[in-house]
Design brief:
This protein is α/β, with parallel strands linked by helices. The protein has helices spanning 3-12, 17-26, 40-56, 99-106, 149-156, 173-178, 213-227, 282-294, 306-323, 341-355, 365-375, and strands at residues 35-38, 67-71, 110-115, 162-167, 182-183, 205-210, 232-233, 244-248, 272-278. The chain contains 11 helices and 9 strands. The protein has a 6-stranded mixed sheet with strand order 1-3-2-4-6-5, with helices on both faces. Strands 7-9-8 form a 3-stranded mixed sheet, sandwiched between helices.
Amino acid sequence: MTALDLAHAYATGDTCPIKVLDTLYEHIDDAPNAFISLTKELAYAQAQSAKIRWQRGNPLSIFDGIPIAYKDLFDIKHAITTAGAKLRMHAPPATQDAHVVSTLHHMGLTCVGKTNLSEFAYSGLGLNPHFGTPTNVTNPDHVAGGSSSGSATVVGHGIVPLAMGTDTAGSIRIPASFNGLVGFRASRQRYDKQGVFPLADSLDTLGPIAHDVIDCLLIDELELLLEKGIKYDHSLMHNDFTPYYVRVGDSWTKIDYSQHPDTWMKPLVRGQETDLIEIPANWYLDDLPPMMFIKKSPNSHGFVNPRHLEEMWRDQFDWVYREMDYAVFPVTIHPDVSGRPQVLLMLERLIKHFKAHDGVKFVTMNQIADDFAKRCPRQK
């Protein structure tokens, strides 16, 4: 079950964070050698608070009460950070949470324990002679991959839907791929590494391991972008021409064709708006992937004339200008065709056409976000 599926079950009352924890700890041995230590007392305290918030209809986030495990490089208050090494088994407990742990706790995630890894995170195999070696999800005779071996196997075995790992040279991506999961290696400064035991500080990165891309996206792009103070995004694309505030915590009833439609044909339950502003950039996201595909098969399509693109963009702009009082019309030039003389002439004609209309401004994404926030202040 994905984190999003579990959040839906919380929202509909099909289960609660306490029941999920009970089941989780009952099946902890389904992932052999995956955990170095458990944080049951902390987990149940967090789960009880999350249960109450879901019952009241005010979860901290879509992840409120969702179980998560942390690679044993992340400091968790009152727990020892072993880094998978025997010589650190009796190290002093951490006096505070790592920054990322604190951030995710404030989102309501439930910390179930600290996962195994290659000693000091120095191996792509995931072997550990001191705490045992986690087993591959699909074949116990195969390695789980490392160094975030425990983080991958606890997700792969269905113990938790999310786990945090670290990646210096593949330590998230290798175990994720070996176990049929999704691992996201963020850029080096995307997450604050305070409180995370280093391997190579100039190369270390942090990131989630999950069953699918959506769960990784929700942790990273919706929540941590906000935590970092980033004001806009352009990857969700629910509206073509108007910005909007991104919501978290939407829930819906899954379609079950074996049941009568009355049981599943129900409206979307909208979640909470955030301060993150979504800006439409559909020309890039909608047009570029198919263009990159068809260019590999030149015999399957005709020559793309810049004038055809010009006509399409001009018609779309004219319709938007006629029908809408306020609209955002980003035009992103495909890198494969930008800079050519025929394209430059096309752009000059388009810009001249756009500027001939009253009220049209050429601005940056940042200015679009600021303008939208002034026009449509979020109700808090």
